[in-house]
Amino acid sequence: MPQTDQTGHTDQTEHTDQIAFLGLGHMGAPMARRLLAAGHPLTVWNRTAAKAAPLVAEGAVLAASPADAVREADVVITMLADPAALDAIADEVVPALRPGTRWIEMSTVGPDAVRELAVRAGESVTLVDAPVMGSTDRAAAGELGILAGGDTTGVEHVLARLGTVTRTGGPGSAAALKLVLNSAVIGGVALVAEALRLADALGVDGDTARTALANSPLGGAVARAFAEGVHFGTALAVKDLALATKAAELPVMEAALDHYRRAAADPALADADLSRAATRIRTV
Q: Residue 38's closest CA among 12, 14, 61?
């Protein structure tokens, strides 16, 4: 039923928007679950259909294809692995979108991919560029940091279920800022791992070195290097740093990218959290 906000106004759109959610990976699944729990009619699609089963059991409708998922949607959300995945989905989705559809693109794909998508979607579709900061724990709690580029009119209530919105400008601006932030975090984790390798080589007690680094300006990177209960795959770190280093000359990030590429070459680490890659950087 419609809900009343703090001003006493009733939001008639709160539970009437038909949402299509495409991409049910480590981040997409908990995000979709929050929207379903909030009462939104939800149609889902994932390349591996079995990953949708828990959401279907909770009331979501499983679509046979991306096009089928979006045909009746008022709001489309994509949370995909990389620009290639987004491009492939767009091939199927764009012809099936209804005029007036709002498309919230939440993947980390870089500003060029977002701007190209806006052109492909056309003027009858409103594209919101909205990548997120935070891992699986914050996705499940609805506490993501959402970077929003473009016109968010009509989807604020959807984004509010997922986290806190920071406006960044036009389409592509959020995707650009996301690369800046992710590069700093991912590079920082590699730097912490190398600092601890140096501590090991110099005979400094590991716990003492870790505590000292945690109390330094690198404290946030130390926390992420040892984080538990979260997931950001090493292969995704490679993807993000590759996008960043294509955009500018970044020698430090190139070095970090080499670390992560070598870690991701190990099948046991490619989908493992970034913290596992940090351990490898420290010890190998």
A: 14
Write out the two tokens for 246: 């294509």
- Residue 195 CA to residue 102 CA, distance in Å, equals 45
DSSP 180: H
Residue that the structure tokens 């991409």 belong to: 23
- HEC secondary structure over 108-143: CCCHHHHHHHHHHHCCCCEEEECCEECCHHHHHHCC
As a residue count, the chain comes to 284
In terms of DSSP bridges, do strands 163-169 and 144-149 run parallel, antiparallel, or are they unpaired? parallel
Dihedrals phi, psi of 74, to nearest 5 degrees:
-85, -35
Which 8-state DSSP code applies to residue 98?
Answer: P
Q: ∠ at Cα 102 (2, 107), nearest 5°?
A: 110
Q: Model confidence over 31-63: pLDDT tens digits? A: 999 999 999 999 999 999 999 999 999 999 999
Is the confidence at residue 12, as pLDDT, over 60? no
Which residues have C-beta within 8 Å of that of residue 207, sequence separation ≥ 6?
none
Q: Compute the chain's Rg from CA coordinates.
A: 20
pLDDT digits (tens, 9 = 90+) for 64-93: 999 999 999 999 999 999 999 999 999 999
Encoded tokens for 188: 């920082």
Other C-beta atoms closer than 10 Å to the C-beta of 157 total 17
Helix (H) / strand (E) element for 61: namely strand 61-62
